[in-house]
Design brief:
Largest sheet: none
Shape: flat
Number of strands: 0
Helix content: 55-70%
Number of helices: 3
Structural class: mainly alpha
Strand content: under 5%
């Protein structure tokens, strides 16, 4: 329980963006590619920015 209590001190709610779940799903997918060596950091960054822009949260 002590470890859980410590985590609660620094945890934060997800951003209040209506499309956050779409963004989170894209992040998970791209991070998996990175972890498996199927994409480079630069490729993942570019893909995530593109997906965020198409979802409506990118700049």
């Amino acid at each position: 329980m002590r470890a859980f209590a410590e985590q609660l001190k620094v945890s934060k709610a997800p951003p209040a963006i209506s499309t956050w779940q779409q963004v989170a799903t894209a992040i998970e997918s791209e991070l998996e590619k990175l972890a498996l060596g199927k994409a480079t950091v630069a490729q993942v960054q570019q893909t995530l920015q593109s997906k965020a822009t198409s979802i409506g949260t990118g700049r």
